[in-house]
Amino acid sequence: MDIKQLRSFVHIAELGSLSRAAERLNLSQPALSRQLNLLEEALDTKLLERTGRGVKLTEAGQMLAERARVILGDLARLEADLSARRSQVTGHVHVGVPPSAGIVITGALVEALRDRFPDLNISIAEDLTGDVQEGLLSGRLDIGILHDGMISRSLHAEPLWREDLYLISHPSQVGEQETDIAFEDVLSLPLIMPTNKHGLRAKMQEAAFRAGRPLTPVVEADALRVLVDLVHRDLGHTVLPRSSLVMELSTGRLRARRIVSPELSRKVMLSWLHDRPLSTGGKAVIDTLRELAGTMPMAAEL
Q1: What positions does the domain HTH lysR-type occupy (predicted)?
Q2: pTM of this structure
Q3: CA 114 vs CA 103, 129, 182, 196, 299: distances in Å
Q4: DSSP secondary-structure letter at 234?
Q5: What is the pLDDT of residue 271?
Q6: Tell me: the pLDDT tens digits for 127-144?
Q7: For the domain 164-264, what is the CATH code?
Q8: Where in the chain is the domain with CATH 3.40.190.10?
Q9: What is the DSSP string of 234-257?
Protein backbone atom coordinates (compact mmCIF):
# COMPACT_ATOMS: atom_id res chain seq x y z
CA MET A 1 0.00 0.00 0.00
CA ASP A 2 1.37 3.42 -0.93
CA ILE A 3 0.21 7.05 -0.80
CA LYS A 4 -0.65 7.17 -4.51
CA GLN A 5 -3.04 4.23 -4.09
CA LEU A 6 -4.67 5.85 -1.05
CA ARG A 7 -5.18 9.14 -2.90
CA SER A 8 -6.70 7.35 -5.87
CA PHE A 9 -9.00 5.34 -3.61
CA VAL A 10 -10.27 8.50 -1.88
CA HIS A 11 -11.25 9.97 -5.26
CA ILE A 12 -13.01 6.73 -6.28
CA ALA A 13 -14.88 6.71 -2.96
CA GLU A 14 -15.99 10.32 -3.38
CA LEU A 15 -17.16 10.02 -6.99
CA GLY A 16 -18.58 6.47 -6.82
CA SER A 17 -17.18 5.80 -10.29
CA LEU A 18 -13.90 4.42 -11.60
CA SER A 19 -14.26 6.19 -14.93
CA ARG A 20 -14.95 9.61 -13.37
CA ALA A 21 -12.10 9.17 -10.87
CA ALA A 22 -9.73 8.19 -13.70
CA GLU A 23 -10.74 11.30 -15.63
CA ARG A 24 -10.15 13.53 -12.60
CA LEU A 25 -6.75 11.96 -11.92
CA ASN A 26 -5.72 12.03 -15.59
CA LEU A 27 -5.24 8.25 -15.58
CA SER A 28 -6.56 5.53 -17.85
CA GLN A 29 -9.27 3.41 -16.26
CA PRO A 30 -7.15 0.21 -16.52
CA ALA A 31 -4.28 1.97 -14.71
CA LEU A 32 -6.61 3.09 -11.93
CA SER A 33 -8.11 -0.41 -11.68
CA ARG A 34 -4.59 -1.84 -11.25
CA GLN A 35 -3.95 0.57 -8.38
CA LEU A 36 -7.20 -0.51 -6.75
CA ASN A 37 -6.38 -4.21 -7.20
CA LEU A 38 -2.93 -3.73 -5.65
CA LEU A 39 -4.49 -1.90 -2.71
CA GLU A 40 -7.06 -4.69 -2.15
CA GLU A 41 -4.28 -7.30 -2.36
CA ALA A 42 -2.10 -5.42 0.13
CA LEU A 43 -5.00 -5.16 2.59
CA ASP A 44 -6.35 -8.63 1.76
CA THR A 45 -9.92 -7.34 1.65
CA LYS A 46 -12.52 -6.20 -0.87
CA LEU A 47 -13.02 -2.44 -0.83
CA LEU A 48 -15.59 -1.87 -3.60
CA GLU A 49 -18.62 -3.55 -5.10
CA ARG A 50 -19.63 -2.77 -8.67
CA THR A 51 -23.22 -1.67 -9.25
CA GLY A 52 -25.24 -0.64 -12.28
CA ARG A 53 -24.44 3.01 -11.53
CA GLY A 54 -20.76 2.68 -10.68
CA VAL A 55 -19.13 1.37 -7.51
CA LYS A 56 -20.20 1.14 -3.88
CA LEU A 57 -17.92 1.01 -0.84
CA THR A 58 -17.91 -2.13 1.27
CA GLU A 59 -17.81 -1.76 5.04
CA ALA A 60 -14.02 -2.12 4.89
CA GLY A 61 -13.93 0.44 2.06
CA GLN A 62 -15.87 2.98 4.11
CA MET A 63 -13.47 2.51 7.02
CA LEU A 64 -10.44 2.94 4.74
CA ALA A 65 -11.87 6.05 3.06
CA GLU A 66 -12.39 7.77 6.43
CA ARG A 67 -8.93 6.82 7.74
CA ALA A 68 -7.23 7.65 4.42
CA ARG A 69 -8.58 11.22 4.47
CA VAL A 70 -7.05 11.71 7.93
CA ILE A 71 -3.73 10.16 6.88
CA LEU A 72 -3.50 12.23 3.70
CA GLY A 73 -4.40 15.40 5.57
CA ASP A 74 -1.68 14.75 8.18
CA LEU A 75 0.86 14.03 5.46
CA ALA A 76 -0.02 17.23 3.61
CA ARG A 77 0.40 19.28 6.79
CA LEU A 78 3.77 17.66 7.48
CA GLU A 79 5.01 18.36 3.95
CA ALA A 80 3.71 21.93 4.17
CA ASP A 81 5.46 22.51 7.51
CA LEU A 82 8.73 21.22 6.09
CA SER A 83 8.29 23.39 3.00
CA ALA A 84 7.60 26.43 5.19
CA ARG A 85 11.11 26.22 6.62
CA ARG A 86 12.30 27.95 3.47
CA SER A 87 12.24 31.69 4.13
CA GLN A 88 12.15 33.11 0.60
CA VAL A 89 8.73 33.27 -1.07
CA THR A 90 9.26 32.18 -4.68
CA GLY A 91 7.71 29.81 -7.20
CA HIS A 92 4.50 29.88 -9.22
CA VAL A 93 0.99 29.75 -7.72
CA HIS A 94 -2.13 29.09 -9.82
CA VAL A 95 -5.34 30.64 -8.45
CA GLY A 96 -8.88 30.13 -9.77
CA VAL A 97 -11.69 32.62 -9.15
CA PRO A 98 -15.31 32.86 -10.32
CA PRO A 99 -16.12 36.07 -12.25
CA SER A 100 -18.13 37.87 -9.53
CA ALA A 101 -15.45 37.31 -6.87
CA GLY A 102 -12.71 38.07 -9.36
CA ILE A 103 -14.06 41.57 -9.95
CA VAL A 104 -13.92 42.23 -6.22
CA ILE A 105 -10.57 40.79 -5.18
CA THR A 106 -8.23 40.00 -8.08
CA GLY A 107 -6.74 43.47 -8.52
CA ALA A 108 -6.11 43.98 -4.81
CA LEU A 109 -4.61 40.47 -4.49
CA VAL A 110 -2.13 40.87 -7.34
CA GLU A 111 -1.17 44.38 -6.16
CA ALA A 112 -0.48 43.16 -2.61
CA LEU A 113 1.50 40.12 -3.77
CA ARG A 114 3.66 42.11 -6.18
CA ASP A 115 4.44 44.58 -3.41
CA ARG A 116 5.22 41.99 -0.72
CA PHE A 117 6.63 39.06 -2.70
CA PRO A 118 8.23 40.35 -5.91
CA ASP A 119 9.85 36.95 -6.65
CA LEU A 120 6.52 35.11 -6.55
CA ASN A 121 4.79 34.42 -9.87
CA ILE A 122 1.02 34.13 -9.86
CA SER A 123 -1.47 33.00 -12.52
CA ILE A 124 -5.14 33.95 -12.20
CA ALA A 125 -7.77 31.84 -14.01
CA GLU A 126 -11.34 33.16 -14.11
CA ASP A 127 -13.89 30.37 -14.41
CA LEU A 128 -17.21 29.07 -13.14
CA THR A 129 -17.36 27.73 -9.59
CA GLY A 130 -17.72 24.14 -10.77
CA ASP A 131 -14.73 24.46 -13.09
CA VAL A 132 -12.61 26.06 -10.36
CA GLN A 133 -13.42 23.10 -8.10
CA GLU A 134 -12.46 20.61 -10.83
CA GLY A 135 -9.23 22.54 -11.38
CA LEU A 136 -8.36 22.13 -7.70
CA LEU A 137 -9.22 18.43 -7.68
CA SER A 138 -7.20 17.72 -10.82
CA GLY A 139 -4.18 19.66 -9.55
CA ARG A 140 -4.38 22.30 -12.30
CA LEU A 141 -5.03 24.96 -9.64
CA ASP A 142 -3.30 25.39 -6.29
CA ILE A 143 -5.85 27.68 -4.64
CA GLY A 144 -9.44 28.47 -5.53
CA ILE A 145 -12.23 30.79 -4.52
CA LEU A 146 -15.57 28.97 -4.48
CA HIS A 147 -19.11 29.64 -3.37
CA ASP A 148 -20.66 27.57 -0.62
CA GLY A 149 -22.73 24.59 -1.68
CA MET A 150 -21.62 21.22 -2.99
CA ILE A 151 -17.91 21.50 -2.19
CA SER A 152 -15.92 18.27 -2.45
CA ARG A 153 -14.83 16.62 0.80
CA SER A 154 -11.34 16.41 -0.71
CA LEU A 155 -11.07 20.19 -0.43
CA HIS A 156 -10.39 22.41 2.55
CA ALA A 157 -12.91 25.24 2.52
CA GLU A 158 -13.06 28.25 4.82
CA PRO A 159 -15.35 31.29 4.50
CA LEU A 160 -13.86 34.64 3.46
CA TRP A 161 -16.95 36.86 3.32
CA ARG A 162 -20.69 36.78 2.67
CA GLU A 163 -22.42 38.23 -0.38
CA ASP A 164 -26.07 39.31 -0.26
CA LEU A 165 -27.88 38.61 -3.52
CA TYR A 166 -29.88 41.21 -5.45
CA LEU A 167 -32.25 41.20 -8.37
CA ILE A 168 -30.53 43.17 -11.15
CA SER A 169 -32.87 44.92 -13.58
CA HIS A 170 -33.08 47.53 -16.31
CA PRO A 171 -33.90 50.93 -14.72
CA SER A 172 -37.25 51.07 -16.58
CA GLN A 173 -38.40 47.98 -14.63
CA VAL A 174 -37.83 49.43 -11.15
CA GLY A 175 -39.87 52.07 -9.34
CA GLU A 176 -37.99 55.07 -7.98
CA GLN A 177 -38.54 54.06 -4.34
CA GLU A 178 -38.17 50.29 -4.77
CA THR A 179 -35.27 48.80 -2.83
CA ASP A 180 -36.54 45.28 -2.00
CA ILE A 181 -38.39 42.51 -3.79
CA ALA A 182 -39.89 39.30 -2.40
CA PHE A 183 -38.40 36.05 -3.68
CA GLU A 184 -41.87 34.87 -4.77
CA ASP A 185 -42.08 37.90 -7.05
CA VAL A 186 -38.59 37.26 -8.41
CA LEU A 187 -39.67 33.80 -9.59
CA SER A 188 -42.53 35.33 -11.59
CA LEU A 189 -40.17 37.51 -13.66
CA PRO A 190 -38.31 36.59 -16.87
CA LEU A 191 -34.95 35.55 -15.44
CA ILE A 192 -31.59 35.34 -17.17
CA MET A 193 -29.51 32.84 -15.20
CA PRO A 194 -26.25 30.89 -15.38
CA THR A 195 -26.41 27.18 -16.24
CA ASN A 196 -26.34 24.38 -13.69
CA LYS A 197 -22.52 24.43 -13.57
CA HIS A 198 -22.70 27.72 -11.70
CA GLY A 199 -23.01 27.87 -7.90
CA LEU A 200 -25.47 30.77 -8.14
CA ARG A 201 -27.90 28.65 -10.14
CA ALA A 202 -27.76 25.93 -7.47
CA LYS A 203 -28.46 28.54 -4.78
CA MET A 204 -31.49 29.82 -6.66
CA GLN A 205 -32.81 26.33 -7.38
CA GLU A 206 -32.54 25.40 -3.70
CA ALA A 207 -34.47 28.51 -2.67
CA ALA A 208 -37.12 27.90 -5.35
CA PHE A 209 -37.53 24.28 -4.20
CA ARG A 210 -38.10 25.43 -0.62
CA ALA A 211 -40.69 27.89 -1.87
CA GLY A 212 -42.43 25.13 -3.81
CA ARG A 213 -41.96 26.99 -7.10
CA PRO A 214 -40.12 26.10 -10.31
CA LEU A 215 -37.11 28.08 -11.50
CA THR A 216 -37.54 28.54 -15.26
CA PRO A 217 -35.07 31.01 -16.77
CA VAL A 218 -35.91 32.46 -20.18
CA VAL A 219 -32.21 32.62 -21.09
CA GLU A 220 -29.14 30.81 -19.73
CA ALA A 221 -25.66 32.35 -19.96
CA ASP A 222 -22.47 31.57 -18.06
CA ALA A 223 -20.51 34.74 -18.84
CA LEU A 224 -21.01 37.64 -16.43
CA ARG A 225 -20.65 40.23 -19.20
CA VAL A 226 -23.38 38.45 -21.19
CA LEU A 227 -25.76 38.45 -18.22
CA VAL A 228 -25.16 42.15 -17.69
CA ASP A 229 -25.54 43.02 -21.38
CA LEU A 230 -28.84 41.14 -21.71
CA VAL A 231 -30.29 42.88 -18.65
CA HIS A 232 -29.10 46.25 -20.00
CA ARG A 233 -31.01 45.44 -23.22
CA ASP A 234 -34.12 44.97 -21.03
CA LEU A 235 -34.48 41.32 -22.03
CA GLY A 236 -34.97 40.10 -18.46
CA HIS A 237 -33.58 40.21 -14.92
CA THR A 238 -30.69 38.40 -13.27
CA VAL A 239 -29.46 37.74 -9.73
CA LEU A 240 -25.99 38.82 -8.59
CA PRO A 241 -24.18 40.41 -5.64
CA ARG A 242 -23.93 44.22 -5.85
CA SER A 243 -20.14 43.95 -5.54
CA SER A 244 -19.84 42.53 -9.05
CA LEU A 245 -21.65 45.52 -10.62
CA VAL A 246 -20.28 48.58 -8.84
CA MET A 247 -19.78 50.65 -12.01
CA GLU A 248 -23.13 49.75 -13.62
CA LEU A 249 -25.09 50.50 -10.43
CA SER A 250 -23.27 53.73 -9.57
CA THR A 251 -23.91 55.16 -13.04
CA GLY A 252 -27.58 54.12 -13.05
CA ARG A 253 -27.09 51.80 -16.03
CA LEU A 254 -28.72 49.03 -13.95
CA ARG A 255 -30.79 48.92 -10.74
CA ALA A 256 -30.54 46.46 -7.84
CA ARG A 257 -33.21 45.35 -5.39
CA ARG A 258 -32.40 43.25 -2.34
CA ILE A 259 -34.17 39.89 -2.41
CA VAL A 260 -36.22 39.32 0.76
CA SER A 261 -38.69 36.81 2.20
CA PRO A 262 -36.33 35.05 2.40
CA GLU A 263 -33.13 37.03 2.06
CA LEU A 264 -30.64 35.27 -0.18
CA SER A 265 -26.91 35.26 0.37
CA ARG A 266 -23.91 33.03 -0.26
CA LYS A 267 -20.49 32.58 1.30
CA VAL A 268 -17.30 33.12 -0.65
CA MET A 269 -14.94 30.28 0.28
CA LEU A 270 -11.16 29.92 0.18
CA SER A 271 -10.24 26.40 -0.89
CA TRP A 272 -7.37 24.01 -1.66
CA LEU A 273 -6.76 20.25 -1.70
CA HIS A 274 -6.47 18.55 1.68
CA ASP A 275 -3.84 16.09 0.47
CA ARG A 276 -1.74 18.48 -1.60
CA PRO A 277 0.84 20.41 0.43
CA LEU A 278 0.89 24.15 -0.07
CA SER A 279 4.17 25.74 -1.08
CA THR A 280 5.53 28.76 0.75
CA GLY A 281 4.14 30.84 -2.11
CA GLY A 282 0.73 29.21 -1.75
CA LYS A 283 0.67 30.00 1.95
CA ALA A 284 1.59 33.61 1.18
CA VAL A 285 -1.34 33.86 -1.25
CA ILE A 286 -3.75 32.37 1.30
CA ASP A 287 -2.59 34.69 4.08
CA THR A 288 -3.00 37.67 1.75
CA LEU A 289 -6.50 36.59 0.71
CA ARG A 290 -7.53 36.23 4.35
CA GLU A 291 -6.21 39.70 5.09
CA LEU A 292 -7.92 41.29 2.08
CA ALA A 293 -11.26 39.59 2.77
CA GLY A 294 -12.01 41.95 5.63
CA THR A 295 -11.52 45.00 3.44
CA MET A 296 -13.65 44.01 0.45
CA PRO A 297 -16.10 46.76 -0.57
CA MET A 298 -19.78 45.86 -0.37
CA ALA A 299 -19.00 42.38 1.04
CA ALA A 300 -20.92 41.50 4.20
CA GLU A 301 -19.26 40.13 7.32
CA LEU A 302 -19.78 36.47 8.17
Answers
A1: 1-58
A2: 0.69
A3: 18, 26, 44, 36, 24
A4: T
A5: 97
A6: 888 889 999 999 999 999
A7: 3.40.190.10
A8: 85-159+266-293, 164-264
A9: TS-BEEEEGGGGHHHHHTTSSEEE
